[in-house]
Amino acid sequence: MMKYFLPLIYFLAIISGCGRTDEVNLLADRVFSLAKTQYAQMDEALGDGQFPKSTDSEGNLVTSDAGWWCSGFYPGSLWYIYEYTGDETFRDIAWKHTRRLAVLKDRDTDHDIGFQINCSYGNGMRLTGDSTDAALYVECARILADRFTEGTGVTKSWNFLRNDWRYPVIIDNMMNLEILIKAAEMSGDNSLKEIAVRHAQTTLNNHFREDWSCWHLVDYDPETGAVRSKETVQGYSDGSSWARGQAWALYGYTMMYRETGMEEFLEAARNIGNMIMDRLPVDGIPYWDFDDPAIPEALKDASAGAIMASAFIELSSLSGDSRYLETARRQLLTLGSEEYLANPGGNGCFILKHGVGNIPGGTEIDVPLTYADYYFLEALVRYSIISSEE
Ligand code: GLY
Domain 8-388 belongs to what topology? Predict the structure, then answer.
């Protein structure tokens, strides 16, 4: 059922005569070498059940437990290091941290269980073909599916209610549909895939503005499915375009087209991608919110740049439009510059600097973020694969 993929380094070795002189490929070699050092050091620093979160103002590692929405990204990054380098030490470390997330099936989780389980177990099963944990993966997908109601046509994001929300759904949920589709394939329960498709279609109807930018949060009436409000939580204002939200939308619809072949999702991904390309600064890394009036003094968000780069590479392959790949190249080369890349002689944590977590909430501002690293590594792996195929 699960395909076995050779670690990428073996794959590259098989492609004889393939010149590795492309700037992004050279960058990938450097980044994965740095990643091996930084991620092995973080492994040594982490106790059982601890996951990296960020660094404090002194550059010390800040950790979370399995419940934090980002807990799957560290094991996920370890999987990409294994995929790229073929170093089996990283396969073993990746399984260790992946399996520490098994506790989530018995916890009070929200929609983020998709990120947590798919980035970790999803990559582990994809790369090793080991299906020991397939039942747990499907169980977690069902926990997410239980957040869906027919009346709304969407999975609910959070359990807490702020303002007068009744059924809040954030654009980030688009990322959590992949586990539903993969679990449908594994279990043969197609209702999981149907939920993913319904969620993506309802979101397409309600989350986007005329220019293809999106709101962060749409609140629904749980009885009628009517839209009650459209607002932001992590962006500059309700009417602004929070950069990571636009990145989640781009990645989510690209993934949904890959998984379903439904043209409406490709069209959405292209429209979102075109809107983003029109608004990106020259170096390709977005300001944390496209509409912050402080631009060009506003902070940039490396995480949004990395998510976009990974999505643009896939969208370019799926659509055959090379403009998306050119944008991704620009983004990756900027992220690989001295300004964004961690200093190899530094604190031994993370790969990218300058991530923006939540400015309105006053947390994780201009710091390393696990998801910035994860999507950066994923983008570099994707780039290496497509450039090997040329
Ligand atoms: N999913 C939460 C965030 O993007 O910050």
Answer: Glycosyltransferase (1.50.10)
